[in-house]
Write a structure and sequence with these properties.
single chain, mainly alpha, Growth Hormone, Chain: A, 17 helices
Length: about 450
C-alpha cells in the first residue's frame, strides 16, 4: 500500500501541477491557450498509448521490474524537464513522463486487488484512490506557490521525493503476485494499438483542421482493424472478450464519461481565475484545492461504504449526478467573477467524484475473475485516461473554433474564452448524462468471484 500510494500520487501530481504555471509557461515560450492545453494532452497521450501493452506485459514478466522501469522513466523525464529549452522539448518530455506513469497506474491497482480480499477491497482501493486525489490536491495548490516563488521549472523537482519513497517501499515488498510467464506479448498488436489510438486522440484534439480530420478517420479505421484482429489472436494484447462482462464494460464506460466530462475543469479554472479573476497562481491554486481536498477526505470512506452495500449502483450513479450539477454551475460563469459560485462548483464536483471513483473502481475490479485482473486494471485505467484525453481534446477543439489560431488570453478575448467554456462544458454535460444512464444499468451486485 505504501509503494502503491506513493507511486500513484505521482501521476496526478505531475499531471496537474503545471496548470497553475500555464500562464508563466505561455509567457516564456510565447504560446496561446491551445498550445498550453498540449502540456496536459501530451502527458495523457503518453499514458493512453502505453497502458494496454504494459498491462499485458506486467502479467507476463515480473511486475516489480515493470514498476521499477516506470519509476526510472519518470525520474529521468522530471530531471530533463527542468532544463527544457523550448516548448517542443517540454511537451516531448511530458509524453515520456506519461509513458512512465502508465506503468504505475495499471500495475499497482492489479496488485492491490489481488492482495486484499473482497470484504476489504473497497477500502484498499479507496485508500489508493485517495492518494490520487491527494496528488490532485497538492498539484495545483503547491504548484501555484512554487511557481510564484521559484518559477515553473522547479516544479518537477518536487515530484522526485515521492518517486524515491515508492522505489524504497517497492524494494521492501518481497512477493510476486500471479505472473503468467506462459503468455506472450503481441508486439504487432501493441504497435497497431499505439498508432491507432495516437491518431484518434491527436486528430480529435486538432479538429477542425483538414489534416486532423484525415488523421482522425485513419485512426478510427486502424482502431477498427485492431479490434477485429484481437478477436482472432490466441494471445492478444487486448482481450476483447472481457467486454462481454456487462457490469465491467458499463462501469468502464461510466468512468470514461465522468472523466471526459470533468477533467478539463482544472485546466479551464486555472486560466479563468488568473485571467478573468485577476488572481495570482498561488491564490487560484488555493481555490482549485477545494475540489481534490473533498475528494481526498471522502473517497476512502465511500470505498469502504461500497463494500457494505448490496446495490453497487447507488454511490457511483449519484456521484455522477453531483458532477453534472457542478458542470451546470460552470455554464453560469461570466466575465464577472462570482467566487462563491466557483466555491460551490468545486465542492459539488468534489463530493460527486468522491462518491463515484472508488465505488466504481471496486465494481470494475470485482466483476472479473483473478486471472483477468491485470488486463481489467489496464482497461480501467485506460478508460480514465481516454476520458481525460477527450476532455482536453474538446477544450482544444473549442478554443480553435471560437478563438482561432490567435488565442492569447488578453482582456479583449475574455468574452470569447467564456463562450469556449460554455460550449465545452455543454458537451461535457451530455457525456455526464450518458455516464449516469450507463452506471445505473450495471448489475446491483458486481461480485463474480
Amino acid at each position: 500500500m505504501i509503494a502503491a500510494c506513493a507511486g500513484i500520487f505521482i501521476m496526478p501530481f505531475m499531471a496537474t501541477m503545471m496548470n497553475l504555471s500555464l500562464i508563466s509557461i505561455g509567457s516564456e515560450f510565447n504560446i496561446g491557450s491551445k498550445k498550453m492545453a498540449m502540456i496536459d494532452t501530451m502527458y495523457i497521450l503518453g499514458t493512453v498509448i502505453t497502458m494496454i501493452p504494459v498491462a499485458k506485459l506486467a502479467d507476463i514478466v515480473n511486475r516489480k521490474k515493470i514498476l521499477f522501469a516506470g519509476l526510472a522513466i519518470i525520474i529521468v523525464s522530471l530531471l530533463l524537464s527542468t532544463i527544457s529549452i523550448s516548448f517542443e522539448m517540454l511537451i516531448i518530455l511530458r509524453l515520456i513522463g506519461g509513458i512512465g506513469g502508465a506503468t504505475l497506474s495499471v500495475v499497482f491497482i492489479a496488485m492491490i486487488t489481488d492482495a486484499f480480499p473482497s470484504g476489504k477491497r473497497g477500502w484498499a482501493i479507496g485508500l489508493y484512490t485517495t492518494s490520487i486525489y491527494l496528488g490532485l490536491a497538492i498539484g495545483p495548490s503547491i504548484g501555484g506557490i512554487i511557481n510564484d516563488t521559484f518559477g515553473w521549472r522547479s516544479l518537477f523537482l518536487f515530484a522526485i521525493p515521492f518517486t524515491v519513497v515508492s522505489l524504497i517501499a517497492l524494494m521492501m515488498f518481497k512477493k510476486e503476485i500471479y505472473p503468467n510467464k506462459k503468455d506472450k506479448l503481441d508486439i504487432s498488436g501493441a504497435v497497431l494499438y499505439m498508432i491507432s489510438i495516437s491518431a484518434v486522440i491527436l486528430g480529435f484534439a486538432y479538429l477542425p483542421e483538414i489534416w486532423a480530420m484525415l488523421l482522425l478517420i485513419a485512426g478510427l479505421i486502424l482502431l477498427t482493424i485492431f479490434i477485429t484482429i484481437m478477436k482472432h489472436r490466441d494471445s492478444p494484447v487486448l482481450n476483447i472478450d472481457i467486454f462481454k462482462l456487462k457490469t465491467f464494460s458499463r462501469s468502464c464506460i461510466a468512468a470514461l464519461m465522468t472523466y471526459g466530462a470533468s477533467y478539463s475543469v482544472s485546466f479551464f479554472l486555472a486560466l479563468y481565475l488568473q485571467t478573468v479573476g485577476g488572481m495570482s497562481a498561488s491564490h487560484a491554486g488555493i481555490v482549485i484545492f477545494i475540489q481534490p481536498l473533498i475528494q481526498m477526505l471522502f473517497t476512502a470512506k465511500m470505498g469502504a461504504l461500497s463494500d457494505k452495500m448490496y446495490d453497487k449502483r447507488i454511490l457511483p450513479t449519484f456521484g455522477m449526478i453531483l458532477v453534472s450539477a457542478g458542470i451546470i454551475m460552470i455554464l453560469c460563469y461570466s466575465t464577472q467573477l462570482n467566487i462563491y459560485l466557483v466555491y460551490a462548483t468545486m465542492m459539488t464536483i468534489g463530493f460527486g467524484f468522491a462518491m463515484f471513483s472508488a465505488p466504481n473502481n471496486n465494481t470494475i475490479m470485482s466483476s472479473v475473475p483473478p486471472s483477468r485482473r491485470g488486463e481489467a486494471s489496464g482497461i480501467m485505467a485506460l478508460s480514465r485516461q481516454i476520458g481525460m484525453a477527450i476532455s482536453m481534446s474538446v477544450a482544444m477543439c473549442t478554443i480553435t473554433l471560437i478563438m482561432g489560431s490567435i488565442d492569447n488570453l488578453d482582456p479583449s478575448r475574455y468574452g470569447d474564452f467564456i463562450t469556449v467554456m460554455h460550449i465545452s462544458f455543454a458537451i461535457c454535460l451530455i457525456m455526464c448524462i450518458i455516464g449516469i444512464v450507463t452506471s445505473w444499468r450495471c448489475d446491483k451486485c458486481a461480485e463474480n468471484l
